[in-house]
Amino acid sequence: MTLRQTGRPYVRPEPTKEDLEYAPLAALDVSKVPDWSKPEGKEELVNDLRRAIEEVGFFYVVGHGIKDLDVRRQLALGDAFFKQPLEKKLEHPCDFATGRYFGYRYPKETYGDTGIRSGIQMWNTPKDTPVLADEYLETDLLKPHREEIKSFQEQVHARILSPVLKLFALLLELPETYFSEPHAFDKASEDHLRYMNYSPHTPEEYAQINGQMVKVSVLTILFPQAVSGLQVQTAPGEYKWVKYIPDHVVVNTAEVLTYLTGGYIKSTVHRVIRPPKDQANIDRLGLLYFSRVANDFDVAIAPSPLLQRLGIYDPAKVDPNPPKGLEWGRERVKHTHLKQVIEVNTPVEAFKFRDGQYTVNLEYASPAPDTILKPSSAIAV
């Protein structure tokens, strides 16, 4: 029976009732800018964003207008996908040998020398747009819902991703569309909508695997997840829980944005741990959207007046042949996902490509919090 026949959206588990220590995430209300062709509300939002990235690097986005029913429909599709027999899910495995992250990721890796296998399954759907027609993956389960999935992807772009990318450009005193235009929905990129399922480990297993990670994207968008488990590392180096709040979408500034800003915008270290006791035996079903750097976009420090004042961007030292987004993304996927063993409690191996021409450790120091910013100068009246 298909989801179309049942017509049932996903029913979330009850949120935890435990008293947890939550991270102080700021909320970015994108409805403050009702019309992006006008300046009203932009400067306030840019300042909100500045505070958000200085504090943690994760933040909520609210006022986006995406209906929770649409979110739960996508969760229902993901839930149905993961309940299929393994042979059906493996019809379209991720092709890590070529750096492609579209398709099904099977939990094949083990953590260090623990012998503990990853409990994470993923299904990654590329943008459904003509320029990426060759990347589309057809499955018996999801094929009847192709238009629904595409519509949801378009909503994420228009209502969350595009506004946030515009705000980052304004924060950096760049033209408003510096990031959003080359990363528009109809442009070629490795963006994907992800259904993700975490099967719980025992408390002893979680203690061994630690679970630290940073994301390889420009931005990572996580829709409300009722089963707790995500923790972020705050400025003092402490891990705190990310709270489930209805209609609050969690956004993470990911690795590529860190690189494009020379470390000014940090990719926040985070981890997934065993859920609280009252949710400990429940699978965590996730719905995420990953914004990858556009295929033809230069992966180089942005020519930002702010970054130039900070000494991060130097026009005299511009890379004449920077990697493009597609090369960067696929090499990064191969670097991470061809491994059968996930490093635990050891420094993560540096990302190197082009025969070592590029070595990326991404261990940046943030500028002082009292750095003078001038967001209003980038907002056209």
UniProtKB/TrEMBL annotation:
Domain of life (superkingdom): Eukaryota
Database matches in Gene3D superfamilies: B-lactam Antibiotic, Isopenicillin N Synthase, Chain (2.60.120.330)
A Pfam family of this chain: DIOX_N
UniProt domain Non-haem dioxygenase N-terminal: residue ranges: 29-110
InterPro entries: DIOX_N, IPNS-like_FE2OG_OXY, IPNS-like_sf, Iron_ascorbate_oxido_reductase
Domain Isopenicillin N synthase-like Fe(2+) 2OG dioxygenase: 195-278
Protein name: Clavaminate synthase-like protein
Organism field: Leucosporidium creatinivorum
